[in-house]
Amino acid sequence: MLPAIENVKPVPRPADSEKITINLGFVDLGHIDLLVAEGLYANRTDFIRTAIRNQAERHADVTRQSVARKRVELGLCRYDRPTLEAARDSGRRLHIRVLGLATIAADVTPDLARAAIASIEVLGSLHADPAVKAALSDRLL
Fold first, then answer.
1. What Cα–Cα distance (Å) separates residue 25 from each residue in 35, 39, 59, 75?
2. Which one-letter DSSP state was computed for residue 139?
3. Nearest of 132, 118, 126 to residue 15 by alpha carbon
4. Taking the domains of the chain in order of start, what are their residue ranges?
């Protein structure tokens, strides 16, 4: 029989998307609403996501070339305390470049982040404690 586990807190799941706000002209919005009403899209969000994916696919060659040229990590990248401590301890500072989501773990202190990260460029979203973001503000590209 397993021992009882007390005071276990669920680990929050990171969001798999980020909310943005855009301004659209009334005619563009009307076109979207018409296509939704005709059943081509489930809702406005579905239309906008599809349009973005279509444009990203249309320009996929440019994206691939840029990712290779700039040495950008593609997707979800997590930087945890042991990784940053190892970089700091080796005297090697990280140049982080991510297209997607970069996450700096919650247990990373602002001092550790400054000691381990030389620069950080995120095309997408950076999730980190506000104090860590503030400590890296002069290194954000």
1. 16, 22, 24, 32
2. G
3. 126
4. 26-58, 66-139
Degrees, nearest 5: CA angle 116-139-111: 40
Residues across the chain: 141
Give the single-character DSSP code of 126. E
Q: Are 95 and 119 in contact (CB under 8 A)?
A: yes
- 121 phi, psi to nearest 5 deg: -130, 120
pLDDT confidence bin for 8, thresholds 50/70/90: very low
User: Using CA atoms, how far apart are residues 54 and 112, in angstroms rounded to an integer?
Assistant: 40
Read off the pLDDT of residues 15-39 as tens digits, 9 standing for 90 and up: 678 888 999 999 999 999 999 999 9
The residues facing 140 across adjacent strands are 120
Of 26, 77, 18, nearest to 52 by C-alpha is 18
Report the side by side order of strands in the sheet with 73-79: 73-79, 94-104, 117-127
Task: Mention every residue, 6+ apart, whose C-beta is less than 8 A from residue 84.
Answer: 94, 104, 108, 112, 113, 115, 116, 117
Element (H, E) at 21: none
Do residues 84 and 102 touch, judged by C-beta distance below 8 A? Answer: no
